[in-house]
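Final report, Chapter 2: Outcomes

The project's central promise was a pipeline that accepts a single protein chain and returns its three-dimensional structure in a standardized token representation, suitable for archiving and comparison. That pipeline is now operational. To close this chapter, we reproduce one record exactly as it appears in the project archive, with the input sequence first and the structure output second.
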Amino acid sequence: MSGKRSRGPKTSNVILLALGLFAFSFIVAMTAIFCVKGAVPDTLIQYTLGAGGVEALLLAGIKVSKVLTGDKPGEREDTYE
């Protein structure tokens, strides 16, 4: 055995991937609704993408706090198994 452990993807990467997939599917759905109905639900778009922005901002804050406190990348990060 080589001494290296196989680690799963970081939790923050999994969250960012899920957030990106949701945003992409939401944009595709809103484009389809616009093509069919000819109207766009502006408030729904504003709040949905705004919530995604808040989530990304919180993840960035966590990363910045880890850098400022001197935690090494991946040292204490939860992993998704």
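Archive annotation: Helices lie at 11-37, 42-69.
This record, like all others produced under the grant, will remain available to the consortium after the project formally closes.
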